[in-house]
Each structure stands twice: as C-alpha cells, then as structure tokens.
Amino acid sequence: CVVSLPLFGSRFMQLIIDKTPYAVAFKTLVPLGCIYVMEPICTRLYVQSMWSVGQEVVAGIRKEVFRSILVQKTEFFDTHQVGELTSLVGKEVDVLRDLVKDNLSRDRGFRSVLECALIIAVLVHQHHLLGPAMASVIMSLSVACALYARSAKAVFIKDYEASANVSTTVTETFGAVRTVRSFLGETKETQRFDAVVDGTLRSGKEIGNAKSNLEVLNRASIYSSLFVLYAGGGYLVSNGSLPLEVLLSTIGFCFSLTFTTQGIVNTITDIYKASASLQRLRSILTARPPSRSLAEALPSLAAASHLQTPAASGPPRDSFVACQLAAAG
C-alpha cells in the first residue's frame, strides 16, 4: 500500500500538469483513495496480530524463567543476589517485549525490510541509472545516521546514571543526617553533592551535542539525497530520457527509503540486544544443574495451589512442605 502511494500521486500530478481533463485525472484518485482506506485497516490487523503473538511468546518465556529459577538448588541462591534474579525475570525478559513493541511501526521490523526491498525494486525498474544511484546514496547516508544514533545512546545512559546519583546522594545524606551532624560533615556532603550535580551538567551538555549532531546528520542525509535527485533527475527530465512523473514519485520514495533504512539498522540492533539477553538468561540458568526433585514436584505444587487455595497466590505452608517432602521421598 505505502509503496504505491507515490506512483499514483505522481501520475495524478503529471496528468494535471499536462492539462488532462479533470474527469480523466480523477480516475487516478480512485485507487489512491482505496489505498488510503485499506492501509490503516491492514496496519491495525498486522499490529494487533503480531503484538498478540509476541505477548504470548514473552509470557511463556517469563514463566519458564521463573520456573527455572525456582527449581535451582539452594547454593544457586547463595551465589546470585535477589536483585539479580529479579532482573532476570523482569528486565531481561522485558528486552524481548521491547523488541516486539518497538518494531511494529511502519519504519521498523518486517515492514521496513519489505518496504525497503520494494522501493529499491521500483527505483531500479523506473530507471536503470537513476534508481540504483539514488538507492545507494540514500541507504549509505541513512545507515551512517542510524549508527551514530545508536552510538549516542551511551551518552543518554550516562546522563541517566548521573541523574540517579543525585537522588542517591540526597537519600544517603538526609537519611543519615544525624551521623552527618555528629561528625560535622555538612561541608563534605555539600562538596560531594556539588560534584554529582557537576557530573549531570557535563552529561547534559554531551546530550546537547549528541542531539545537535544527530539533527545535522539527519538533515544532511535527506538534503543530500534530494540534491542528487534534483540534479540527476532534473537533467534526465530536461533531455527527455525520464518522465516527470517518475521524478515526482522518486521524491516520495527518497523520504520513505531514508526512514526505512534507518529502521532496519535499529531493528538489527534490537535483535542483537535481545539475543544478548537470551544468552545471559541461558548462561545463568544452565550454569548449575537444577534440583530434579523440585523440578518433578513443581507441577504438583501448582496443582495443589489451584485446588486447595483458589483465592490465594500460593499453597499454604503446610501443603507446600508436604509436597516437598513427598517429592524428596
């Protein structure tokens, strides 16, 4: 749907420029109107179905991670802190959830890959020289912008950590204010807090530089692509080797290809991030063999919880111990 919009739009503009009777030109708007109606409907069906499937997968993984932790031997919990295990069930699995959530838009995920491939095919089909040249220029510049945006994320993480240090410092100082007063530590604490605030100031300035550089790169990418298109396409139109409507449609494809290429780079990075989270989960949960008795007893514990205490989140302590003893025996 999205790829065909510049084609029908440029065809309509060409007919208007050629002073074609409006009744004839209007017929070009009929398929364009159908596309405008169908595109949101198809988008809703795609997003809803992919989100539902993704949520089912993530929910299954989260349950399995929790179960895998629960059946570990006691020494496993001696070497792993509660916060680390909580992060496995929550934060690490949420990375997979974010992978689905962040790649459902038009310029991310499967849709961006399909749209990018179709645009390149249309550009090459429209003109054997202009199409490949424009695709190469746009994609190379867009990849450079996307890679810089990804590298700049470290600056935002640093600023987040610096801001968190402000709250931590305030909490520590005011929480131990009696100790601070006893040792006359007001001056030292003030200096420590000033150093933390100065850190947020430096990271804030770094964010400003990163954002400004990113804006420059994005605009340079789009403007450079348009300049090459106007210069090369205009020359081909002037000597009659390229129809004007092809040039007009290529302008629309220029913007679409820029955003979809950047989206593909972001999607690939998200996939690597999700793969790293899965690898961390696998390395921690498979480092030690689980307790076989607990693994075998876990289904019976769940059944006991469902049958004996339907209004509670788990079985009574007596039934839990009884099930454990029965499994151990």
What's the rounded overall pLDDT mean?
76
Order of secondary-structure elements: HHHHHHHHHHHH
Largest sheet descriptor: none
Q: Strand portion, in percent?
A: under 5%
Fraction of helical residues: over 70%
Tell me the Rg in angstroms.
Answer: 29 Å
Count all strands and give the number: 0
Low-confidence stretches: 301-329
Distance between the termini: 64 Å
Dominant shape: extended
The tally of helices reads 12
Structural class: mainly alpha
Structural notes for this entry:
The chain has 329 residues and is mainly alpha-helical. The chain is built from 12 helices and no strands. The chain has helices at 4-17, 22-70, 74-79, 82-102, 109-126, 130-151, 153-175, 177-182, 186-238, 244-285, 292-308, 317-328. The protein is extended, with a radius of gyration of 29 Å. It starts with a helix and ends with a helix. 18% of the residues are buried. Mean pLDDT is 76; it is low at 301-329.
Produce a short descriptive summary.
The chain has 329 residues and is mainly α.
Please outline the helices and strands:
Elements (H helix, E strand, L loop, with lengths): L3 H14 L4 H49 L3 H6 L2 H21 L6 H18 L3 H22 L1 H23 L1 H6 L3 H53 L5 H42 L6 H17 L8 H12 L1
Helix pairs in contact: 1-2, 1-10, 2-4, 4-10, 5-6, 5-10, 6-9, 6-10, 7-9, 9-10, 11-12
Summary tags:
single chain, mainly alpha, 12 helices, 0% strand, extended, disordered C terminus
